[in-house]
């Protein structure tokens, strides 16, 4: 296929053809229908007329014939070659061949609605991809375009990538109020901090470029981080930089004044003084503008002053940095603009798939930035900014701000902290962890677009978190989803509350039925509790006992699941190490726990008793079969004695039996389960024979006569 000319691109872009994010799209499919059937707007029809191959097609188009064969026009062939013939042919012929545009729209709407899953499979598009929005598709287009641009000649590539990088850097610095900054684009959001550390090491150790790590032995560099930083960040830094873990200093958070998730500034200053006195070099401080767990912001203003006092590099990261783009910004977040560097994740905040993270920094020596890897040395590396460049072009400044404002508006205190955490009261801390995990999972399933998750905090324990700045753009969270989340929360919480209140009663009622019913301690189970029915097993080995327990509790679980109740019973194998248990789910406050436990115990007893009855019956049947075999064997021996040896010979026995037949004296045996007795089958056969004779006598016949004292003959 030949590439589009400039004229092609201009005309097609005018009619929004190049903005196809998916061919199976109602608006775009209708546009193609118009093109293929001569119903396009007049300027486009003139363009098609100039591009037709045959005079017949030209005349047909000129007279407005809507049934022009689409394969007769170069433009239509270009349409099919651009998106692929399979896209158009995937539509049913009944839709493609509809005579009018109105009918085509009606049928296409219905088909798209009924075949959404088929469309995903046909075009390799997942449901998540369908929700990324237009800006997400622009980002995906940027990745493909970057691969295409990378094959250009070096000079054109250099000019293009330099323009893309400079424009994106300028837009980001203006958007996030970071004046005179440079930008580093990286796939891993931790790599920017690694490169910043290399930059600071090169700047503070003059001989580092020539001597390497040996210069660090004179003064060990120290990196400070808050105890609320994301796990593994500092360890990753030490691994990438080749520094020992002793170069990492974790600063505790406040314990008396302020937030328990903010760095203790006074303690930090004390640690810095101690390190300087020990001959170490305080190098860099990692601060949070939105901790990973609770979304709290450190006192960035005081930290900035402290870093200026002791010549530390201040690096800031966190989700709250996104609020710098809003019109109203709190002073705590505004202080982040005075930092030496900060890491942004615009792809996550704007819902852009596979878009790089960005680290903005200020440094005057470009040579050190190049040595640290902050400045790309190859033009191809600068193409990492292309997807973000396209997305920012598409959204514009107002579009980016609108997305951030929408995300923050989903929480009540939108400026102070765009992260909402909630948990159960301290009075119920015993079952708090398991309940909150279940609550978070249930809410995520009931309202998947809300983006709620569960976090473990050091002081607060397990909490449910709602962070729309991180999830709203990706999931498309709206105000209706938040309202739905509140409704579901009000439905689920009372059930969990009542379950926590009834756990102790359930434990006590289970102990009342001991030892047959045993309560199992499973703290990981988010329900009423777990029990196991254990009948007495005297004289039974361990293997047989386990098999018996498994059989009884499996049958008991099956019977409980058949009950007409809202309570969920399960085996719970994924929650605990105990085997052969019955896990009772959450219950409402109107559930009678005593009756519930009595029902479980009664069903268990019934299963055990029925099992014992079956075992007894099996033993009786087995003994009856053995006795019947002995009697039949004895009868067979008596028959041999009565008939003699000659009748047992093959040929002689047949002749003797022909001259003098012998009636068989061996009778079968029947086993009466009710009486437990073994009887002969002679009585049974005689009874059936009499019944058969009576039925024959009562049956009407058309070809026989009944004579006194004679046998009835049937013809």
Automatic annotation (TrEMBL):
Residue ranges for the region (Disordered) are 696-715
* Domain (PDXDC1/PDXD2 second): residue spans on this chain: 431-500
Needed cofactors: pyridoxal 5'-phosphate
Q: Which UniProt keywords apply?
A: Decarboxylase, Lyase, Pyridoxal phosphate
Q: Which InterPro entries match?
A: GrpII_AminoAcid_Decarb (IPR050477), PDXDC1-like_2nd (IPR055103), PDXDC1-like_3rd (IPR055102), PyrdxlP-dep_de-COase (IPR002129), PyrdxlP-dep_Trfase (IPR015424), PyrdxlP-dep_Trfase_major (IPR015421)
A GO BP entry: carboxylic acid metabolic process
**SUPFAM superfamilies assigned to the protein according to its UniProt record, in alphabetical order:** PLP-dependent transferases
PDXDC1-like third domain sequence ranges: 509-611
Q: Which Gene3D superfamilies match?
A: Type I PLP-dependent aspartate aminotransferase-like (Major domain) (3.40.640.10)
Record-level Gene Ontology MF annotations: carboxy-lyase activity; pyridoxal phosphate binding
Q: Which family does it belong to?
A: Belongs to the group II decarboxylase family.
Record protein name field? Pyridoxal-dependent decarboxylase domain-containing protein 1
**In which organism is this protein found?**
Amphiprion ocellaris
